[in-house]
Write a structure and sequence with these properties.
globular
């Protein structure tokens, strides 16, 4: 069933439905990963005489683990549409296409990040209590308000858009099929970039001077920061394009 207008009540019910369907799986997976991270952090601290050395390992392993897990969950956002019985139930839900699409995106991206940060915070709190009691460490907990985590968050939302598109596009095995697709596209892109570099860019003078200069064509220096912002802007726009493509494909599949 499809409705024409957005309803906050229906949207809230869809979010509750998503929570009921995913919460058990998420809890089991997240607690298992958190236990593994806690175990590794404890081993690092136990084998090092430096107090609080565990925190760096905890942050790196924790961020990578939960980002990868979030991509897996994102690729399963529309797993209901992969089987006939469940897809029929999903299609006949009393909600609009946009409400179904946006609720799935919101739960697997924003809500997932909030949940993951809470798990990381609690896990780091447990570890810091152990560190203070056994190794005379200081009270430090996971802090999501850092540049490192901000960059990881941006990378997650960009990558999530690709896997979210894969969830809509592929009926089964969306995560691995999306990985394979990204690998093939990356190889083709790198080949074409190499060809363009040697044909077009190579004749120009490349500069690697002081002050973080990268290259120029007319004597003006392009800074590393400007290049970094340009790359992030490009991938952000690409992520929006992937979400738009996912929306178009979602409407086609639900018909």
């Amino acid at each position: 069933m499809n409705t024409e207008h957005f309803s906050l009540k229906r949207f809230t019910q869809l979010l509750l439905r998503q929570r009921m369907l995913n919460m058990k799986t998420w809890l089991i997976a997240m607690i298992s990963v958190a236990g593994f991270i806690l175990f590794v952090a404890f081993l690092v601290q136990m084998t090092s005489p430096v107090p609080d050395v565990w925190m760096k390992t905890f942050e790196i392993l924790g961020i990578i683990s939960f980002v990868v897990m979030g991509l897996v969950f994102g690729s399963l956002a529309f797993s209901e549409m992969g089987t006939y019985s469940r897809s029929l139930q999903f299609v006949t839900l009393p909600a609009s296409r946009f409400e179904k699409f946006f609720s799935a995106w919101l739960v697997t991206s924003v809500f997932y990040i909030i949940f993951a940060v809470a798990i990381l915070f609690v896990t780091s709190l447990l570890m810091t209590l152990v560190s203070m009691g056994l190794y005379e460490g200081s009270f430090i907990v996971f802090n999501p308000f850092t540049e490192q985590f901000g960059n990881a968050l941006l990378a997650f939302f960009i990558a999530h858009s690709f896997f979210f598109l894969g969830a809509v596009w592929f009926r089964k095995g969306a995560f691995f099929k999306t990985l394979l697709t990204l690998f093939v596209v990356n190889v083709i892109t790198n080949v074409w970039m190499a060809i363009l570099f040697f044909i077009i860019i190579n004749p120009f003078k490349l500069l690697t001077g002081a002050g973080g200069a990268v290259f120029n064509f007319d004597g003006s220096i392009v800074s590393e920061q400007l290049l970094s912002w340009s790359v992030m802007g490009f991938f952000s726009v690409l992520a929006l394009f992937m979400l738009l493509t996912a929306w178009v494909r979602f409407k086609e599949r639900e018909v």
